[in-house]
Amino acid sequence: MDIYSDLNEIRSPFPAAHVTIGNFDGVHLGHKMLFDTVVRRAREQGGTSVAVTFDPHPLKVLSPGGIRLISTTPQKIELIAQAGLDALVVIPFTPAVAATPALDFVNQVLVDRIGMKDLVVGYDYALGKGRQGNIDFLKEQGDARGFPVTVVEAQFIEGEIVSSTRIRELVMAGRMRDVRKLLGRFYQIRGIVEPGQQRGRTLGFPTANLCISEEDLCPKTGVYVTQVSYDGKQYGGVSNIGYNPTFGMQKLVAETHIFDFNADIYGRPLKIDLLRHLRTEIAFDGPEALVRQIGKDIAVAHKVLAKARKKKLIAHQR
Prior knowledge:
Elements: E1 2-4, E2 17-21, H1 29-45, E3 48-55, H2 58-62, H3 73-81, E4 87-92, H4 95-98, H5 102-113, E5 116-122, H6 135-145, E6 149-152, E7 156-157, E8 160-161, H7 164-172, H8 176-183, E9 187-192, H9 199-203, E10 208-211, E11 222-230, E12 233-242, E13 253-258, E14 269-279, H10 287-310
């Protein structure tokens, strides 16, 4: 997949561009339906499948602090690349872009610059200043400019609508099994391992610590069963996301004890899939009580991980 981080990088329109456009936060199963439709139509008609998105998310510009994102831009690009598209156009979102009238965006960006011959959008999509370019507008422009508009209706799984908004709610509620159903994968946090207080090592359970910004989407605090990806390998683990009240910490941290692992990974990137929320974070009477509970958490985690591997939801540990 070719990636364009600015419209000026597109030297000439894509041949017979079949386009889908959206914010694609989380790249969930609803988004996958859009990508699959565009890829299929482009292949059937000998065209180019193109996804168009924005960075940062428009609400980060229009309403700072008003949205917490499921995925970072690098995560989003990585996930979209798996969809089999020919090209991804990432438009830098600025106040000037926000002020662009819908008609200008369709004509100048989608048709003239990208070469759009076919458009696929979600049922609730709208573009342009003030979201003027709703579905009816896009269909009218399609009739005028000669591109068909396909609208992919809302997707439901077990009665839950597949939407970024709903997934954010489920993540914050710690309902990771429901999150997986809508994302099509487990929710993942990423970061660089930072030095901690070494309390886990003292207790016999060394941890890899990732700092979490409270301005980002934060899962419900507590203990999770996790699968950790490091250097191309997968490991089981348990993660405590929170403030470690037993020791009176004030900083929000994800502390992960990785099973059967012993390596110096300070300053290295780590990916952590959250499989299940086990319990809320509580303050214990002392280190001994905490150690006993960690042992219980690990025993449960091994059972959860074994079941997930049997169902082929996660990879076997290498």
